[in-house]
Sequence to fold (178 residues):
Amino acid sequence: MYLSDRNIKSEIEANRITISDFDQERLQQVSYDILLGNKFQTMKSYKLAAVDPSKGILPETHEIEVPDGEAFVLHPGKTVLGTSKDYFGSDHYLIQLSGKSSLARIGLVVHNTAGIVNPGHFLNITFELYNAGKIPIILRPGMQIAQILFAQISSDLESNYKDTGRFNGDNWGKNLNH
Fold:
């Protein structure tokens, strides 16, 4: 079951959900709109003949930081990693990332597979931004890029994400395997 706007707000007030710089204007009926951050990673695909994840053969990446007020152009058929301005998480709820329909209609995909944030994981989420359209899409830091939904867990967890040892801080730029 997803939390309603009323429940999201009360859980933030009770410190059971963390959203940095919570803005009531971005609270929807059952979701919260999150903003695009300033960092993007592009792959240096010209340096590899092929990617082989099972052998650890991955493309090198290049980080680009776009200042507020400027733009990043996402060309058709291209994928880049981006990050959210919003830092969020919860020890009590599963968080689901979803694209915004207004952006999906122009061909923007915000995640391919990594749309789940487990309880205990607090982060600026990494977006897998892909332009499925035929014309370039202008991305601007601070734009509403996606939404997050909060789902109740059916029972107490045996462990949360912090307990798994998988999270080692801000490593989004260090590799593509997270």
Observations:
- The chain is about 10% helix and 35% strand.
